[in-house]
Amino acid sequence: MVGTAAGAAEGAVRRWVEAAGGRLVLDGGLATELEANGADLNDPLWSAKCLLSSSHLIRKVHMDYLEAGANILITASYQATIQGFESKGFSQEQSENLLTKSVEIALEAREMFLKEHLEKSIPIQHPILVAASIGSYGAYLADGSEYSGDYGEAGTKEFLKDFHRRRLQVLAEAGPDLIAFETIPNKLEAQAYVELLEECNVNIPAWLSFNSKDGVHIVSGDSLIECATIADKCAKVGAVGINCTPPRFIHGLILSIRKVTDKPILIYPNSGERYDGEKKEWVESTGVSDGDFVSYVNEWCKDGAVLIGGCCRTTPNTIRAIQRTLNQGFNQQHLPVA
Prior knowledge:
Blueprint lengths: L8 H11 L4 E2 L4 H7 L13 H4 L1 H14 L3 E3 L7 H5 L5 H28 L9 E6 L2 H5 L15 H17 L4 E7 L2 H13 L6 E5 L13 H9 L4 E7 L6 H9 L6 E4 L5 E3 L4 E3 L6 H5 L2 H7 L1 E4 L7 H18 L5
Parallel strand pairs: 1-10, 2-3, 3-4, 4-5, 5-6, 6-7, 7-10
Antiparallel strand pairs: 8-9
């Protein structure tokens, strides 16, 4: 793990990117693959439900993504909160242990992957990182508000800071390489996150990623440029970008982010499908194939993205195709001159 003092987060991310040859590949959808492996996620805890009794499935999905070429594993803590576990009858200590467990499973998967390749005399040259996921308050509510940013009376900065504080501390202490604030739906929560990073003196790099449904604003209607500016001003944020957004919107969103920050840009869109918050299901007719998804990758690289992966409804096949596309681009750039 690379530690970072205030101001060094961006440098740490850039060193990892350089060590990976100029691009880091994130993993893809976790819940999609857990369900494909037999998990029942019909629960407010969603993928975090597997922390209770099916940790072996989480480990398997992590391993599948590593085999597909992912450089970064995102933990199964997106919808894991102390409050959510307590509502299931767990004590605070037990709830905190489950948060820690989400990081430990990813670290174990990394260790197993490296050991297997060492035994096969196939050393891994690129970095393999673990990012501890922190979903929004709306993800805890499990009512679709993570896709609207409308928190009603709970929508105050101090409330959000109180909600996330201990969760952030526990995950940071568990030993990940990064903290991933994901699917941020409004400017207020972004501000709460950056203030918590400072107040809790988190000494590992964080990233902030927002979601958009129109290619201009984040889902609450707040300005993406204003949100990216909040991330840019925080020395503990090492990268900023977009996740859980249709691929067709990413080009314009990257250009907007680049107007206000020089920090590394990360993008991990969903498959292009739309989530119906009322029915709690994905509308499949709006999705794109893996081939269509990765057809955007070279454009995103030209736009300046250096951390690229997938979000909801993407699979190891998606990540494998992204890695293949990036490798082809690297080889073309280094062809010998005739």
